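Hi everyone,

Forwarding the result from last night's run.
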Amino acid sequence: MFCPRCGAKTDPDAAFCESCGARLATEEAPAPAAPPTPPSRSPSGLLVGGGVLLLAVVVVGVLALTGVIGGDREVARVELPPPARVTAPPAMPAPATVETAPAPETTTGTEPEPGAEPEEPRSVAATVARTCGRGGVGGDCHLSVRASPSSDSAELRRLDEGDALALSCQRRGDPVRSSALGVTSTVWSRTTQGGYVTNVYVKGPGLKSRSITLRRC
């Protein structure tokens, strides 16, 4: 071994150089590391670990018996019906438009056309009857046509027994008694020539002595 300062040969075990007194660097071998000591386990820790392991084994065994682990149990599947298809109804054809002809103008009848004569209401043919009394006794054999349905109104003309006349309408008026019929009537009939006659002295199809059977005047 040589001194690093002066280069003199020195003893390998010397700590200083014998020539210059410089300190010599000696290499010391590192002490071997002590092996790690394993941790010691207390008896209580071993008991706790063993209990946890036993509990885990029991749980796994129960799950295996019930079929949760490794079982062949099949989970029931609920099959839902397929959704119904909603089909739109066929389109209805558009209704065909029907062109209607304009209604002809109608006239009410109350307004006659210019130059036309007013239309007379429908009349009923009648005959003067029973004016001579019962059995031809007690009567004067004629019928007075009055201006209004009253025996006191003005006499317009006279008709004899059996004369024909046309009646247009009827209304109520003064009562008149017929000795031939033995009845009293308040019905008066208007002639188409104007004036009223009591209904008890006329007869014709559909006429009644005490009832209104024509249109009302």
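Residues 43-66 form the longest helix (24 residues).

Cheers,
N.
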